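Hi Y.,

Following your request, here is the sequence exactly as I used it, all 593 residues.
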Amino acid sequence: MSIARLHQFFTAPTAKKFSPTAVFWFTLSLTLATIYAFQALQKAFASEYVVQDDARQFVFWMQRFVDPELLRNDLMAEYYQSITPPGFASFYWLMAIIGIAPLLLSKILPAILALVTTIYVFGVAMEIFPIPAAGFLSTLLLNHSIWMRNDVASATPKAFAYPLFAAFLYYLLRGSLLPCLVAIALEGLFFAPMAFISMGILLLRLLNWQKGRLSLSRDRKDFLFCLTGLGVGFLSLLPYAIASAKFAPLITIKEAKSVPEFMVGARVSFFYNHNPLAFWFAGPETGIFPYVGPAQLFIGILLPVVLLFSARFPLTNQISSKIKILTETVLASFVMFFAAHLLMFKLYGPSRYTQHSLRIVLAIASAILLITLLDIAFRAYLNSHPKTPPQSPRIRLNKKLLLFPILFSFVIFFALIIYPHTLRFFPRPGYVVGETTALYQYLQQQPKDSVIASISLEANNLPTFAKRPILVAREYSLPFHTKYYGQIRQRVIDLISAQYNPDLDRVRQFIQKYGVDFWLLESSAFQADYFDRIDSANRRWLNLYQPATSEAISNLQQGIVPALAKFVDRCAVLRERDLVLLQTDCLLKANSN
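Below is the corresponding structure, written out as tokens. Let me know if you'd prefer a different format.
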């Protein structure tokens, strides 16, 4: 292929959706997206007991769709059901009705969502910049980004942010009212932050910036989209607002600043003492872009500079006026980001309004910039080396100088394709593998209302893998709703106090108060240095519950033997790895001597 034809292949615009070039780049986009999704699926089905980290919270309670007797009257199941968006819950319920269990669906769904996102982002990129190679690069960069994080892989509400928002952008750019409204409705039912951003974009489209002045749009279609979109958006948000009020009120910002549950290293890190950069940019809940990656995604930040000097970049003539949707998305995202900060915690975590939408914007902007620069490289070569007769000595010179545009093409395309395979972990879906299979299988044989008490890290997995309720665990101790967290906090304090109390009667009182049937201990639980040896995240979590934790540590260091330690051998019903499962009936009947 000649350099001129190669130039056309990479940078020629197309007005036809199904031109051979467009079909090639679209097919390549889907092919790579499928490869990444398949790699994630391999990890999802690598073992019988595998679940995505966040799915342990939002999907575990949905096992009741398959068996209504599971997790009945369970505080954590009730809470997570109340904060789960109704559209998301209904979707999983519908799939369960037709025979696809929630945990199975949570493993399959990410691949489907990634492919749908790829299709719509390719379409959005083509609406803005009708060069198929740019559409391919947009999807490639975005797929790199979403598979380096566990958002889509989680199969939780945030997993729907990308396909639904990309669909909204596509139908808005196409001027398709009904599909656009459907996208907004689904955003509100599945992941509310994206609905707020979409409504913000519709409002911004009512404004025009001309000759240095703001004016109202004269296009009636903009008003039609805005009014109907706002109406649909607010209606779709109502069911979630009503359901999530069950455990209200939300903690206030003043209260949150005074408790350790929101400080650095806690279960939910919101506040970073004397570190405003971390708070505003890198905070998982408060930052603009808390999870950076891949680095090449940020090339798109330079696109406005190229547009400012568009006369020097001929391919920018192909950029449609629809590119303003990227600016509108950024503005709407930041408005909601700062609104969430002002109304903390009523509008969710502020980072939800920037990290997902900006990834899509940056992917498209980076692709446009890279293709524009590639065009310049080809033009520079072709302009300095015009066509020559076949026998001209200049041909040999041209062959040597072919290196620059070819090398440039290779770096942009092949390096980007190969890039994920140079990473140690890619894709990174955040799956958790359960390793205590005998424990899960034993508990599954127990009555469905059996309650397990434990401060070990393994407690996080029991509701999902053993399908039995637990008293408390780190994964389920979100401190946002006071009516819920007040109960969780008291449970943890009571559990720690009972586990390390030398008085057996206090242990029995605890068992009877909470209806505990089994007690899961680590084999080193009664050693003096136990709290120093456990997982750091679990240690930070337990340190939140004072003075119970400090008293437990003090008792162990002083050699005070907990009552529970005396009955480990007598009441153990199962041992696996470093865990011991005790039956509480044995403790209730045991002689204190």
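Residues 285 and 349 are 5 Å apart (CA to CA).

Thanks again,
Q.
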